[in-house]
Amino acid sequence: MTWHVRSPEPPFLKILRMENNTTPQKRNIWNLILGIIFLGYGTYRVYTLSSDFNENILGFILAIAFIGFGIYDLWKYYKGM
Fold first, then answer.
1. In angstroms, how far apart are the furthest CA atoms of the chain?
2. Which helix (H) or strand (E) holds 77?
3. Which of 4, 12, 28, 37 keeps 20 to 30 A from 54, CA to CA?
4. Sign, CA torsion 18/24/25/31
5. What pLDDT was estimated at residue 55?
6. Distances in Å between the alpha carbon of 42 and those of 10, 22, 57?
7. Segment holding 50, helix H or strand E
8. Tell me: the pLDDT tens digits for 27-59?
9. Domain boundaries, given as residue ranges, for the chain
10. Does residue 24 register a pLDDT over 90?
11. Which of 63, 67, 59, 65 is nearest to 39 (CA)?
């Protein structure tokens, strides 16, 4: 006669089961729209300002900021915030 001892469930399986039971968060479509617009506008400004970088440093910094905001908005959309 053999005895079978059931081992306890690993913790990562509990975490996976808890994540699967949660309701999906609603994605905000405005994060997607603004992310694409900011990313596109910032990329356009970097491209147009690349020829006179030394003359318009503030414009170049603002264009990089627009790209950053666009990436952040797209990240928020795909994360579901």
1. 87
2. helix 57-79
3. 37
4. positive
5. 85
6. 47, 36, 14
7. none
8. 889 999 999 999 999 999 999 988 887 888 899
9. 26-79
10. no
11. 67
Task: Give the alpha-carbon dihedral of 14, 15, 20, 25, to 10 degrees.
Answer: 150
Count how many residues are written for the chain: 81
CA 76 to chain CA centroid, Å, is: 5
pLDDT band at 2 (very low <50, low <70, confident <90, very high): low
pLDDT at 10 over 70: no
Structure-token pair, residue 34: 């603004």
Report the distance separating Cα 50 and Cα 62, nearest Å.
Answer: 13
Tell me the one-letter amino acid at 25.
Answer: Q
